[in-house]
Design brief:
By secondary structure, the protein is an alpha/beta fold. The protein has 12 helices and 10 strands. It has helices at residues 18-29, 71-79, 100-108, 141-146, 161-166, 180-189, 215-228, 230-234, 236-252, 256-269, 274-282, 288-298; strands spanning 8-14, 37-43, 60-64, 86-89, 95-96, 116-125, 128-132, 138-139, 158-160, 194-205.
Length: 303
């Protein structure tokens, strides 16, 4: 084990996926990275499994969310208790490739001013695995305003601890933490472009979110982003995209009139915004929204 390589704390929020969690922990401990790696499992609104704890070379600590209930609070519990140089995120149903941390640290050390490094992903469903690449080694703030860049996923993120803390960690006011990774990426990329390793080094499970059908919260989260990130509203096409996503969520939630009103607002900003037309169609038959999401998730995509 190298004592000169930056030390890393891997924060894994956990909520009722015991088998997947053990797989995620094992993958984090199996990294070929030469430096110190610690794993902190933060249980959120579920009973902690202390049998995961291990004091070995790559120790595993089990704790509970001491902050706001939800994913953001769980991440912050790990962030503000870490004593390492770097902090990595991994969701409890995702799996890292063995070279993930080593490749990221190699690239991050080339950019001393960078806050965070990401990787591409392998988007997985029961019947398909789709590589999602960014096509770049740097992801700018402008790019993240214009696109969520779903391949820059929360389970890929490796942060420098102090800059992450200086940003305040993860925002715990986002409705049910929906899109908390996009929020921190927007804030971090405003400081310095995201360093990106464009290799699919993380297997991300698509379509298995606990909030897959929580359309009301999805809509509320889009409204939150428009209120808290004025750069989205200032960009006509970016605003149309987020408004179109909200329209789709309202449609799936059965709020037909609201869906049509938001779809109209999206089209007024960008006549080519396909999410708005999709929302208008789904508003006529809300259950069809789930079928649309199933098809998109199969290819590692979303609305």
């Amino acid at each position: 084990m190298s004592t000169t390589s930056p030390s890393i704390c891997v924060v894994i929020p956990a909520h009722r996926r015991p088998q997947e969690l053990r797989r995620a922990v094992a993958a984090a401990r199996a990294q070929d990275y030469p430096g110190v790696v610690q794993v902190v499992v933060v249980y959120d609104r579920s009973e902690p499994d202390h049998s995961l704890e291990d004091a070995g070379d790559r120790p595993v600590t089990v704790t509970t969310n001491s902050r706001t209930p939800g994913l953001a609070g769980a991440r912050n519990t790990g962030i503000f208790s870490a004593t390492t140089d770097l902090i990595a995120f991994c969701d409890d149903d995702d799996v890292w490739k063995p070279t993930k941390l080593r490749r990221q640290v190699e690239e991050l050390e080339k950019e001393p001013a960078a806050v965070v490094c990401s990787t591409a992903i392998l988007a997985t469903t029961p019947n398909r695995a789709t590589p999602r690449l960014a096509g770049t080694s740097r992801v700018s703030h402008r790019t993240l305003v214009g696109s969520r860049m779903s391949m820059v996923h929360s389970s890929t993120l490796l942060f420098r601890k102090e800059p992450l803390r200086a940003l305040g960690g993860i925002d715990e006011t986002i409705p049910k933490s929906m899109g908390e990774d996009w929020d921190i990426l927007l804030r971090a990329s405003a400081v310095h472009p995201v360093v990106h390793v464009d290799e699919p080094l993380v297997e991300v499970s698509f379509g298995e979110s606990f909030f897959r059908r929580d359309w009301k919260t999805k809509a509320e989260a889009k409204v939150w982003f428009l209120r808290h990130h004025p750069e989205l509203s200032d960009d006509r096409r970016a605003c149309a995209r987020v408004v179109g996503q909200a329209a789709f969520a309202y449609a799936c939630d059965g709020q037909r009139r609201k869906a049509w009103r938001w779809a109209e607002n999206a089209i007024r900003r960008d006549v080519t915004q396909w999410r708005a037309y999709l929302a208008a169609c789904v508003a006529l038959f809300p259950p069809s929204g789930d079928a649309v999401m199933t098809v998109l998730n199969r290819f590692g995509r979303g609305v």
